[in-house]
Amino acid sequence: MRIHEYSGAELEDVAGEVFVPMIAQTAPGYRGRMALHELGDTMALSRSHWGPMSAVRTAQMAARASEDDLMLFCIQTAGECNVYQNDRFVAVTAGTGLLAEACSPSERVSSTETRTLTLRFSRGLLPLRAAEITEGCARRMRPTAPAMQMLSGYLGRLFTVADDLTAPQRLDAGQAAIDLLAMVLRDIAPSVPSGNGSGGVLLDMMQAHVREHLADPNLGVEELARRHHMSVRRTYTLFERIGTTPGAYLRQQRLLAAQVMLSDQRYARVGMSRIAAAVGFLDLRTFERAFLRLYGMTPAGWRREHSRAGAAPVPVPQELPPR
User: Fold this and answer.
1) What are the coiled-coil residue ranges (predicted)?
2) For residue range 230-255, what is the model confidence (pLDDT) as tens digits?
3) Which residues contact 112 (CB under 8 A, 6 or more apart)?
4) 3-state DSSP assignment of residue 7
5) Nearest of 321, 276, 266 to residue 300 by alpha carbon
6) Domains located in the chain, CATH noted
């Protein structure tokens, strides 16, 4: 087992070596710790203690992923964070599992200390079709699901005994974990669009509509249901597939778009009221309170600490509202 202890300035180097390259923002005095077991050439199991941070994997970084690009399956063992990938926003809480792929841009934000158990492996080891793997990314895996409980318990035990296993045994144990992960991904298949049902397609349509109309202040749950010719009750049922409500999803997408704009120097001179309006908030105080609840700081505070150059990793309104 290898141990890494690192500061905020060293975080990007450690992440690039152990996980995937990323751009990180941390608070002064940041400290992190990671214990790592190598299970094979492209397989590793780690237990990490992270401080509050923002980590971005840009489109340029994702484009450089190798042909056998890496996957990261994380179990949040303590704390909370928000993850964005493949046009999906996930609020991750303790016990939740989440799959991420290196070949897609992503963003992870945590305002508190977090602990994770992470399995890193080559995509080719997962016995699923490529489309199924991508659709399984950024899908919340409930800690109460039986398959998830099996996988979580197995990985925790594997981390404990890995040093006592031979190299072939570690490799076999890692592959067994990946097979269990495939079972978990099949268990959440109802949220993945397929040819044998319309629910997933309708959900994708509504999610896409939300992301494309964030600036519309009239877009709420009832209006979303009306535009897709279905009842409010049916709308709630569809969003249960991804572990949230339509109202929470709409609010999260609006705040995520605002967070991205506040992190981008291209919007550095844009006033807070205009940014709020650009993502559908007509009242500045409502926007500020919602942003504070989700990210643990005010929009102005976020801008001061996270402003960076470069293109935003998620869609934001192409035109800001008039002054």
Assistant:
1) none
2) 889 989 988 888 888 999 999 988 99
3) 52, 79, 80, 296
4) strand
5) 276
6) 2-191 (2.60.120.10), 199-306 (1.10.10.60)
